[in-house]
Amino acid sequence: MVISSKKFIAVVSAIVFTASACAGVNFLTGSEASASSVSVLAAESSMRDITSQELVEDMGLGWNLGNDMDCYGTWVSGMETEGCWGNPKATKALIQKVKASGFKTVRVPVTWTSHIDADGNIDEQWLDRVQEIIDWCMDEGLYAIVNLHHDGNGQSDIDWIRNAQSDYDTTAAKYTKVWSQIADRFKDYSDYLIFESMNEVEFKDVSKSDAYDTLNKLNQAFVDTVRNSGSNNAQRHLLIAGYITDIAQTCDVRYKMPDDPMNRCIVSVHYYTPSPFCVATPDVDWCTPQTTWGTDEEYAELDTNFKKMYTNFVSKGTPVIIGEYGVLTEAKNGKDADSITKYLKAVSETAVKYGMCPVLWDASVGGDMNFIDRNSLQFNSSDIENMYKDVAARIESGELKKDDNIKGDDTYKEVEVSLTDGVSVDVSKYDKKPVGAKIYLSCSTDWDSYGGGAVHYDDGSSDWVYQEYGFNSVYDVIEMKFNDKVMSSMNNGTAKQLDFFIWWTALDNEADENSGHASELSFKDNKVVLLFENDEQPEETTVTTAETTITTSETTVSETPVETTETTKETAEETSETTASESSSESVSSSGSGLEAALKGDATCDGEVDVRDVTLVNQYYVKMKDMTEQGLANADVISDGIVDLKDLGQLKKYLIKVVDSL
Fold first, then answer.
1. Domain count, the chain
2. Are residues 383 and 342 in the same domain?
């Protein structure tokens, strides 16, 4: 978790007087690190014969010692960095309070940057202090996680790990040297100690594929370094950072878990969803802040996201730790207290149900997620404290545990079909209606970012029904289950065709270099996959509604649809990538001015027809923006007196060169 700049400035002002308190620094060489340890207090030094999944399930509920050893600042140096954002230094009594509150795991985020010399040697006194906190956890029989924290996601003068995108070899050498010293110091500790590779790291200055490759290589270097350090580290359970520890981006096909001869790697993601509730302050402009949480839809979203991690990792043998989750607690942010408690409880219970360990982010008085006050050693909310004690008791008794009977998503028959004119599929040709679709994207350039589009259902009337989808990367497999509106329309007997569109990238914000790339995207191989319920292959009907040519992967025929028996398989359908919208599809009247189109399609009236016109028509249709009378006349490309999705579809076909003129 990164401290906000506003909070950061406030804290700086409050404690800048410590700037002159500079302690002497004694840096370790690799050989000195193991010889100069403080007392090793771990009760057990053995490595149990258990899997990483068994270990994660035994970890119970976790708690972060946030804004303590991870702090940094230009106004402090040496040992004064600990807690320099406003917290008192950690004590053994604090760790005992954490245990008494029902937590069984303590994550100790550590920022090492200010404690490493030019040759990559760690300050001995700093490493001693980290070890002291770890020993307190061992004394209490708690699991402990130690990592490289803001070294990879702090400010530009702190997050040296991100230099790997421009100078991998130098950065990797420093990275492995730091981990060699940490691993050597703790090599005889039991499997109650877990090393975590890094925290919330991304690489923004290279292509997304190169960014994934860089992270994957660093994670592999981490595993190799720890394994080669010997003793218990040869078998230690290791926590591997996901891409920026984001669920969707960690589930990307380009993210790879490291090769590990011991098969003892766990993946780490963080969860602050929905962000308008969890992290949005009242003054943000990127969303409408949300003060409450707890609708059926919000519970379902939580379950869907965690099930995604279960499906992609846990069910395939890779355990998951939710390394951070939480909600803003300061009164000024206006978050409803009952909603906070409900959210924290739901995250904890859902994580345990899917066999994952949830670790609460607690920045205490030095941050804006404050649960245990480190001055008084008391929970700020007795409701939250009692909730965690209750959840912990249910875990201990076995009442709450991993559900070994989790059902996979419904299986569907997949039918791969080609798109007529690069857009349409005639669904009237089947004896049953598809219930969803899988979409694969292709890009004509090396661009890769997020965007979205829609699937339109055209029943031949002016009232098209559509459902939006989103993607985080052009490498995503977009899986969507059609919503009730689309299914109802398809089942009313007038089903004709589905039209697939890519609408926007990066919100088509001109200030974002990732915007305006929709014209570079297309559907891979000019195909989509339709999903049908049950195990039976959908069959063609004897009545056709159009003289279009449908091309399957095996056969091309005219007029009569062909059953695609060679391209089907069963698959688990997931909907977590879908951002379905049930916006009204009512037509919007154009102006009654009687103006003629000056340039058909030029909704922006700038003399050109391009993606900006598609964006404006889309925004106008969903009532986000208005258009001028001339713009409306230009946007009515099918000349029926209204500007609606038919105009948008035709305009899109023109831009992707499906049609030659408007």
1. 3
2. yes
What backbone torsions phi and psi does residue 389 show, to the nearest 5 degrees? -65, -40
The question of whether 324 is a catalytic residue gets the answer yes
54-59 contacts at long range (C-beta below 8 A, 24 or more positions apart): 55/191, 55/237, 55/319, 56/266, 56/319, 56/320, 56/321, 56/355, 56/356, 56/357, 57/355, 57/357, 57/401, 57/402, 58/104, 58/143, 59/104, 59/105, 59/143, 59/321, 59/357
Rounded distance between C-alpha atoms, residue 410 and residue 236, angstroms:
37
Residue where the block lists tokens 């421009």: 166
Asked, for residue 405, whether it belongs to a domain, the answer is no
**Residue 550: CB atoms within 10 Å:** 24
Residue 487 identity (one-letter amino acid): M
Task: Quote the pTM value.
Answer: 0.71
Domain presence at residue 415:
yes
Whether 468 is catalytic: no
Residue from 149, 509, 111, 467 nearest 323 by CA: 149
CA neighbor of 456 nearest in space, from 470, 442, 466, 469? 466
Shared-domain flag, residues 484 and 549: yes
**Per-block average pLDDT, block size 10, for the chain (662 residues)?**
38 31 41 35 71 98 97 94 96 98 98 94 98 98 97 82 96 98 98 98 91 97 98 98 96 95 98 97 93 96 95 96 98 97 98 98 94 97 98 98 83 89 86 91 86 82 76 86 86 76 73 76 93 77 35 29 34 35 40 78 90 76 78 90 82 73 88
Q: Are residues 186 and 209 in the same domain?
A: yes
Tokens for 486, please give them. 């689309």
Q: Residue 594 sits in which domain range?
A: 587-656
Residue that terminates a domain, selected from 585, 613, 636: 585
Query: Which token pair is 67?
Result: 């804004």
Domain boundary among 371, 397, 423: 397
Q: In this structure, is residue 392 part of a structural domain? A: yes
On whether residue 142 sits in a domain, the answer given is yes
Closest CA to 98 of 374, 365, 314, 327: 374
> Residue 342 belongs to a domain with what CATH number?
3.20.20.80
Burial tier of 290 (Cβ tally within 10 Å: 0-12, 13-18, 19+): middle
Tokens 């290589």 label which residue? 217
Q: Which of 80, 200, 416, 573 is catalytic?
A: 200
Catalytic-role residue among 324, 385, 414, 577: 324
